[in-house]
Amino acid sequence: MAEPIKDWFLKEWMTHQGRIQAEIARELGWERGRVSKVVNGRQPYQRSDVLALSKWLGIEPFELLMSPKEAMALRRIRESAAMIVAEDPANFEIEPNVAAHGKIAGRAR
């Protein structure tokens, strides 16, 4: 039998979310054999598998391709960036030489 393919992090996400294989079978209606093959990397996954499992886990589909630790770090970065963007731009003044130097330099008032 071929070596399992390790190109997604389904097992790690299941552990992270406290989920077990039996729940996939019960909640998604998959046969137990299929669940075992998909979870253990003995069967290539399909797009529909990625979408169903990511929804079941409550994560974005692309997050299955990275470890939970990496995905959580990326979420924190995105949340921080969103908070920065959401700040009131009136609290910053843009220096007049922005166009000349190609960089944004702001200072708090």
Description:
There is one protein chain. The chain is mostly helical and 109 residues long. The protein has a domain of 57 residues: 434 Repressor (Amino-terminal Domain), CATH 1.10.260. It is built from six helices and two strands; from the N terminus they run αααααβαβ. Helix 2 packs across helix 3. The radius of gyration is 22 Å and the shape is elongated. It starts with 9 loop residues before the first helix and ends with a strand.
Helical segment count: 6
Helix/strand-derived category reads: mainly alpha
Question: How far is the first residue's CA from the last residue's CA?
Answer: 66 Å
Uncertain regions: pLDDT < 50 for 5+ in a row?
98-109
Strand content: 5-15%
Rough outline: elongated
CATH architectural label of one domain:
Orthogonal Bundle
Q: Please give the share of residues in helix.
A: 40-55%
- In the CATH hierarchy, the third-tier topology of one domain is known as 434 Repressor (Amino-terminal Domain)
Rg estimate, integer Å: 22 Å
Compressed to H and E, one letter per element, the order equals HHHHHEHE
